[in-house]
Design brief:
16 helices, single chain, mainly alpha
Amino acid sequence: MDPYGFVNKYDPQFNGIGPKVYILPLPRSLEEEMKDTYTEIAAFKDTINRGLMFSALLKGFHLTSNHQLIEAEAALAAPAKLIEERKTLHDHGALYALYNLLANKALAAKELDSAARLLDSADRYSWLSNHTSDRLLIRSNKAAVLLMQDALEQASALENELIAYYSSQNDNNRKAEHLTREALISAHKQAYTLAENTIIRQVFPIYNKTKDKKGKIQAWITLANIYHLQNKHTEAQWFLLQAKTEATTLKSAELLAVINYLLGYSKSMQKNYAVAEKELSVALQLTEELQDNYLKIAIVEELGRTKVALGQYEEAKSLYTEYKKLRTALFR
C-alpha cells in the first residue's frame, strides 16, 4: 500500500523475503524535524558552556612584562633549543616568559594538561627571578587553568593567595577581580550563598569606590551566571539589566554581546520567547563583529531553540545549519 504516492515502481510478481505489503509513513514535517533536532542537541549544551569558559580563559590570559622580547626570539629558534640556551645562562626571566608563552599556545590548541605543566615551569622560574608582578600574573593564569580542569580546591588556594597579596598592596581592582573568580569557584562547589555574598558584599563596594566600570560589569555577569546555575532567572536579569546599561555607556560590543545572550537565555528559560528572540538576535548581530565563535554557537543554539518555540521553523532550520558548521569547527 502506498496511499501517499511515494513508491513509483512496484513489481506484483516479487516473491522475496519480507511482508507482502509495506505501509509507508508520511515524512516528518519541518515542525517535527526541528523539534526533534533541538531536543537531540540539548545534551551538548554543557559542552558549549565549557567552551564559553575556555574562551574567557584565553581572553583573560596574562602575558609577562618581557613577553615581546621572548616572542621575537621564539620566532627565530625552536622553543626546546631556546629553553636549553636560557637554562645554560641561568636566564630565569626569559625562561618564565617563554614557558608562559608556550602555555598560552597550548591553551589555544586546547591542550589543558600541557598548559598546566608549562605554567608550573613558568611559576618555578618566576620565583627564582624574584619578579613579583610577573609571578602573580603567571599564578593567575595557573588558577584559571585549574578551574577549567575542575581542580577547584587548588584553584581556590591560588585565588586566595592572590587576594591576600593585592589586599596587602591596596591594589583594590586586582583584589576585586580575584574575589570575583573565587566567587565563581565557590559556585562550582555549589556554595552559592557564599558566592553571591562575595560579589555583593565585597566586590561591588570595591568597584563602587574605584569607579572601575568594566570590572563591575564583569562582576555583574559573573553573578548572573551564578544565579543561572541555580535557575534563578529573575535575579540574574536584574543584575544583567544593570550591566547592560553600563556596557551601553562604554559602547563595548564584546560585553553587550555576552549580556544580551545571557538575557535572552534567561528569558527563554522563563518561556518569554518573544523577548528572548529580540535579545538573542541583537547578541548574534554583535558577534559578527567580534569573531567569537564560542559565544556565537551558544547564541545560535539558543536562538534556534527560541525560533522553534515561536513556530518559526524555517529560521530554526537555517540556524541549525550554522550551528552544525560551528560545532564541527570548534569541537572536532
